[in-house]
Design brief:
Elements: H1 2-12, H2 14-30, H3 34-47, H4 57-60, H5 69-90, H6 109-116, H7 119-129, H8 136-146, H9 153-159
Length: about 160
């Protein structure tokens, strides 16, 4: 239960909790357990959630958690990626999660090529899986948009 895990991590203190948290990620990633990665990313977001009036009382008693902007950004990116990893895995698309950090900045062209090669297998996987979501092309467009692959990438994959 993620609520229980959150409580335990908050009780450990920030440094120890981050060590425990970071130790759990490699196993989840190496075993391609993207559901667990998704849960860990959400848990990380909860650890550093901005303290508002709606936050549970025990969070207000744990100073220092709210000033983790870099960690919060990493958890958001991991959550975003984990959603796509779960979709791609469910559609039996072969992919390498290490390339999902590649952005359109010219520094990781191999990662960009890997991401750019995924729309066509994503569409094929939708057809094979009888995907009943928003439609294969809409899902492909969302993938292309989320990873800055260009407006034409989904249409090109569909045409191929």
């Amino acid at each position: 239960d993620s609520g229980l895990a959150l409580g335990y991590l908050l009780m450990l203190g920030k440094k120890k909790a981050l060590q425990v948290y970071q130790a759990a990620l490699p196993a989840a990633l190496s075993h391609r357990n993207f559901h667990r990665v998704h849960v860990l990313a959400r848990l990380g977001q909860q650890l550093v959630a901005p303290r508002t009036g709606g936050a549970p009382d025990h969070i207000h008693e744990c100073p220092g958690w709210g000033d983790q902007a870099v960690f919060r950004g990493q958890c958001s990116a991991m959550l975003h990626n984990a959603v796509w990893w779960r979709i791609l895995r469910g559609l039996d698309v072969d992919f390498d999660p290490r390339h999902f950090g590649a952005r359109n900045d010219g520094r990781n062209n191999g990662g960009r090529r890997h991401l750019a090669a995924l729309p066509q297998p994503l569409l094929a996987g939708c057809g094979l899986a009888g995907h009943g979501g928003p439609g294969p092309l809409a899902l492909c467009r969302k993938f292309c948009s989320d990873f800055d692959l260009g407006e034409a990438a989904a249409g090109q994959a569909y045409a191929e």
